[in-house]
């Protein structure tokens, strides 16, 4: 079994949010992702999707985009991104009836000795954009990450992975509170996204920080190809 990762699919079944405004490489980006997915992923594999899945505003409007993901091979683990305005309660999302999509939000996912945690995260406190109101969101997201890890179902998992949408680093490239929490709990791998274009990608940090391997899986950072994270 292989584990893959990619975030920031930014699907738009209504064709109201063309992503090529961010560069020509975004033209037909969804087709590039899906083609790579079909070529690489088998039904027994797991695909990790840490946020910004669809531009839809409501859960109803997101159904078509999520249905496209449902039809792709593999089990998909989805966490929330800052543009996932369609995100709703776990009950409502689970009641959509998808068989191969699992949502992680204050909970975790376990299979074959592998355990996956996650939350959206938030911008670093030392960001110029971080305002007083952001502190409440920041602390709430930290609690959600803690809730997810504490919901662990396995006594001795063979592999642990955390999904964060925002990079778990401050503006100097050091682990922020999210990164410190993940590393401090000896989580093996942490995936994150959110960073786009040259201006964003220059802030990507990868490699071993503390006890955890950090990997950026933003779609354009990966050239819109699913990335193999681990084979188990």
| Number of separate strands | 11
Q: Low-confidence spans: pLDDT under 50, at least 5 residues?
A: none
Number of discrete domains: 1
Summing up helix and strand content along with how strands pair, one would put the structural category as alpha/beta
Oligomer: single chain
Percentage of residues in strands: 15-25%
CATH superfamily: Metallo-dependent phosphatases
Biggest sheet: strand arrangement: 5-6-7-8-10-9
Terminal Cα separation, in Å? 6 Å
Give a verbal description of the structure.
With 232 residues, this protein is of the alpha/beta class. The chain has one domain (2-231): Metallo-dependent phosphatases (Purple Acid Phosphatase, chain A, domain 2, 4-Layer Sandwich). The chain contains 6 helices and 11 strands. The chain has helices spanning 29-40, 59-71, 90-94, 134-150, 177-184, 197-201, and strands at 2-5, 46-50, 75-79, 101-103, 109-111, 114-119, 159-164, 189-192, 207-209, 212-216, 227-231. The chain has a 6-stranded mixed sheet with strand order 5-6-7-8-10-9, with helices on one face. The chain has a 5-stranded mixed sheet with strand order 4-3-2-1-11. The model has no long low-confidence stretch (mean pLDDT 96).
How does the SSE layout of this entry go?
Elements: E1 2-5, H1 29-40, E2 46-50, H2 59-71, E3 75-79, H3 90-94, E4 101-103, E5 109-111, E6 114-119, H4 134-150, E7 159-164, H5 177-184, E8 189-192, H6 197-201, E9 207-209, E10 212-216, E11 227-231
Parallel strand pairs: 1-2, 2-3, 3-4, 6-7, 7-8, 8-10
Antiparallel strand pairs: 1-11, 5-6, 9-10
